[in-house]
Amino acid sequence: MVKQVMLVTLSLSVMTSAFTVRAQRGGQLGPPCLHSQSEQPNQKARRERAISVAQQINRAENTGPARRRYRSLDELPNVPPTPAGFRLQFNTDGTTYTFSLKDTLDFCEYAIFSDQDQAIYEATPRIGARLVPAETP
């Protein structure tokens, strides 16, 4: 009886995981998300290093004179290297900046992003959203 209960519990757990991944990817079955509740220690370490990169970019952009001109990424001091598997995209026009760190190894497309307001966001994309082109007159 105990073996049956354990087997049913294991089966439900596997089905729940598959459903969660399938729902996240618009019905496509794939590997589990790397940065979910079951995040492995090595993936957590990669994610935390990426968050450190984001924190350091914000810190570097927001030190100095009050009248500011934001610098390009290659002009920022002390920014650690991007963790393996993450892709960093950085944009500035001098008066604002934005950046994202996207995990290219994660099936669920986890990303970290921020801008000159310095809040750091972590998210996965909304699946099933559809772009509709604007009509031009």
- Order of strands side by side in the largest beta sheet? 1-2-3-4
Helix content: 25-40%
**Backbone structural class:** alpha+beta
Q: What is the succession of H and E elements?
A: HHEEEE
The strand count comes to 4
Give me the Rg, rounded: 20 Å
* Sheet with the most strands, sense and barrel status: 4 strands, antiparallel
Supply the number of helical segments. 2
Instruction: Work out the strand percent.
Output: 15-25%
Brief synopsis:
32% of the residues lie in helices and 16% in strands.
Question: What descriptors fit this protein?
Answer:
flat; alpha+beta; 2 helices; 4 strands
Task: Give a description of the structure.
The protein is an alpha+beta fold and 137 residues long. It has a domain at 41-126. The chain is 32% helix and 16% strand. It has two helices and four strands, in the order H-H-E-E-E-E. Strands 1-2-3-4 form a four-stranded antiparallel β-sheet, with helices on one face. A hairpin with a 7-residue loop joins strand 2 (97-103) and strand 3 (111-115). It is flat and about 50 Å long. The model is unreliable at 2-24 (pLDDT under 50).
